[in-house]
C-alpha cells in the first residue's frame, strides 16, 4: 500500500478503497467510484461555501493563514511593499517574475498608453443618477466596456487575452475617477501620461483648473503601497467569481464586472466602507466596550475583523498601520484611528475574539487612510477593485492556461419534492409549498 494514500472503508458495503493523496488533497472525482451498487451515482463531497475545497492549482499567491504570511509569486508582501511600485508588482503577479529595467520601462509605457477611454464611456456614465453608488457605476461601466471591445470575446487566443489585460489594468483608474467626478458633478479629467499610475489617478480625481496636477509624493506613495497590498489574494469570493464566470469563456470585461460585483459585498471588499460607518456609529473611545458587547451578544459583526483564511494578524493590516503614520504627517491624524486602535486593543484581549481567532483584516485600517487622503467611504471599495483587477486577470489567465480547468459547475444535494401530481389552477388555493 502506498504511504501517500488514503484508505477508506465504506461501511454500507464493507468494501475498501485506496485513494492517492497529492499535495495534501484527494481528488473529489476519486470518491465517485465508492458506490453501493451499479445504479448508485457515487460518493460526493458536501462543502457549502467551499471551506475545505481546492478548486485549482495556482502559482500566484501563497497564504499561510495560521502564521499570517502573504507572498506574491514567492516574494513576501512586506518586501514588495517596501521596495516596489504598484506596476512593478502587477508585472510580477501577471508574469511570475520581477521585471528588469527594460521590461519595466516597456510595461509602464504600455499601461500608460492605454489609459484613455472611448468617448462613449462618458455618455453611459452620464446615464447614472448623480447620487449613484460609485461601486455600482464601476461594476456596470466595466461590463459596458465589453461593447467597446467586441474582439475580447476571443478568449482562446493568448495574444488577444494579453491585449485586454493591459487595457483593463490601464483603464480601471480612469473609469473609477469618472465615477467619482460624476458623483460630485465635476467635469471629467483626461489621463496625463507624464504621471505615474497612482499620480495620474489622483490627477483624474482631483485636478481642477491648474494647468498641471502635482500629487503630494507621500500620499501618492501611500496609495501605491495600498494598491500593492490589494493586488491579489488567491481564491477569495471575487476571484472565484472571476474564474467561475471566465470558465464559461465569457469575455474579460464581463467576467471582471462579476468579480467586482462580488467584491462590493460588505463581507468582502465592501467591508472597508462599513468599517468607517461603524467607527462613526461608535463615535468615541468611551463607547467601544459597549459596542463590543453588542457584537458579542449577536447584534452585528465587528466590521474589518475576521477572515476565512487568516487566523492570525493579517500581514496587510500591519503594513497599512505603518503607512497610516506617514499619511497622517501630511493630512493630520484621522480621529477615527483612536477608536479603531481601542477596538483592536479590547477585541484582541477578549475571550470571544481570541477563541474564534478574529484579528483585524486589510479593511480595518485602509478606510481610515483613504478618508484622511480625501476619499468618501462610498468610494473605498472602488479603490480596492483597481489593484485587485491585476489579481483577477492573473488568475483568469492562469485558468485559461490550465488544461485541467473546465466550465465551473458544482453539484448539489437535492432536497425538494419529486414526481408530484400536477394541481390544476382551480384546485390550487390553500396548496402548501413542498419543501
Ligand atoms: N465580528 C464578530 N464575530 C465574528 C466576526 C466579526 N467580524 N467574524 C466572524 N465572527 C464569528 C462568527 O459569528 C462565528 O461565530 P460562531 O462560531 O459563534 O458562530 C465565528 O466567528 C466564525 O466565523 P465564520 O462566519 O464562520 O467565518 P467565515 O470564514 O465564514 O467568515 C468573514 C469570514 C466573512 C470575513 C467574517 O469574519 C466577517 O463577516 N467579517 C466581517 C466582515 C469583513 O471584515 N470582511 C472583510 C474580509 S477581508 C476581505 O474580504 C477583503
Overall description:
This protein has 435 residues and is mainly alpha-helical. Among the domains are: 75-266, Orthogonal Bundle (Citrate Synthase, domain 1), CATH 1.10.580.10; 271-373, Cytochrome P450-Terp, domain 2 (Cytochrome p450-Terp, domain 2). It is 49% helix and 5% strand. It contains 17 helices and five strands. It has helices spanning 77-83, 86-95, 101-112, 120-126, 134-148, 158-184, 197-206, 217-229, 237-246, 252-263, 271-282, 288-296, 315-331, 336-349, 351-355, 362-373, 380-401, and strands at 5-10, 15-20, 61-64, 69-72, 75-76. A three-stranded antiparallel beta sheet has the order 3-4-5. The protein has a two-stranded antiparallel sheet with strand order 1-2. α8 (217-229) runs antiparallel to α16 and α13 (315-331) runs parallel beside α16. The longest helix has 27 residues, at 158-184. Acetyl coenzyme *A is lined by residues 236, 267-269, 271, 295, 301-308, 356, 358, 361-363.
Amino acid at each position: 500500500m502506498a504511504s501517500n494514500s488514503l484508505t477508506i472503508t465504506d461501511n454500507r458495503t464493507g468494501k475498501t478503497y485506496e485513494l492517492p493523496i497529492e499535495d495534501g488533497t484527494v481528488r473529489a472525482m476519486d470518491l465517485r467510484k465508492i458506490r453501493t451498487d451499479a445504479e448508485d451515482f457515487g460518493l460526493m463531497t458536501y462543502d457549502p461555501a467551499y471551506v475545505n475545497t481546492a478548486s485549482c492549482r495556482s502559482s500566484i499567491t501563497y497564504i499561510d493563514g495560521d502564521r499570517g504570511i502573504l507572498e506574491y509569486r514567492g516574494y513576501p508582501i512586506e518586501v514588495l511593499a517596501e521596495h516596489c511600485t504598484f506596476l512593478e508588482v502587477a508585472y510580477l503577479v501577471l508574469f511570475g517574475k520581477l521585471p528588469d529595467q527594460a521590461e519595466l520601462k516597456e510595461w509602464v509605457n504600455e499601461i500608460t498608453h492605454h489609459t484613455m477611454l472611448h468617448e462613449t464611456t462618458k455618455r453611459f456614465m452620464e446615464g447614472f443618477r448623480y447620487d449613484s453608488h460609485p461601486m455600482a457605476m464601476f461594476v456596470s461601466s466595466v461590463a459596458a466596456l465589453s461593447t467597446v471591445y467586441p474582439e475580447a470575446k476571443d478568449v482562446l487566443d493568448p495574444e488577444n487575452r494579453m491585449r485586454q489585460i493591459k487595457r483593463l489594468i490601464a483603464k480601471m483608474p480612469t473609469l473609477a475617477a469618472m465615477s467619482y467626478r460624476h458623483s460630485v458633478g465635476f467635469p471629467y479629467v483626461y489621463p496625463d501620461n507624464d504621471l505615474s499610475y497612482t499620480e495620474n489617478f489622483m490627477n483624474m480625481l482631483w485636478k481642477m483648473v491648474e494647468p498641471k496636477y502635482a500629487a503630494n509624493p507621500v500620499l501618492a506613495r501611500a496609495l501605491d503601497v495600498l494598491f500593492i497590498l490589494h493586488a491579489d489574494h488567491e481564491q477569495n469570493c471575487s476571484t472565484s467569481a472571476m474564474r467561475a464566470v471566465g470558465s464559461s469563456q465569457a469575455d474579460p470585461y464581463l467576467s471582471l464586472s462579476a468579480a467586482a460585483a462580488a467584491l462590493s459585498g460588505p463581507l468582502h471588499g465592501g467591508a472597508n466602507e462599513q468599517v468607517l460607518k461603524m467607527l462613526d456609529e461608535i463615535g468615541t473611545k468611551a463607547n467601544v466596550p459597549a459596542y463590543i458587547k453588542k457584537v458579542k451578544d449577536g447584534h452585528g459583526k465587528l466590521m474589518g475583523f475576521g477572515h476565512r483564511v487568516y487566523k492570525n494578524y493579517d500581514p496587510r493590516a500591519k503594513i497599512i498601520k505603518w503607512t497610516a503614520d506617514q499619511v497622517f504627517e501630511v493630512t493630520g491624524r484621522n480621529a477615527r484611528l483612536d477608536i479603531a486602535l481601542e477596538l483592536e486593543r479590547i477585541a484582541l484581549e477578549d475571550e470571544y475574539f481570541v477563541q474564534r481567532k478574529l484579528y483585524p483584516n486589510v479593511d480595518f485600517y485602509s478606510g481610515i487612510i483613504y478618508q484622511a487622503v480625501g476619499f468618501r467611504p462610498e468610494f473605498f471599495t472602488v479603490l480596492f477593485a483597481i489593484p485587485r483587477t491585476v489579481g483577477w486577470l492573473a488568475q483568469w489567465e492562469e485558468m485559461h492556461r490550465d488544461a485541467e480547468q473546465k466550465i465551473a459547475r458544482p453539484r448539489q444535494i437535492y432536497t425538494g419534492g419529486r414526481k408530484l401530481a400536477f394541481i390544476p389552477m382551480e384546485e390550487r388555493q390553500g396548496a402548501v409549498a413542498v419543501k
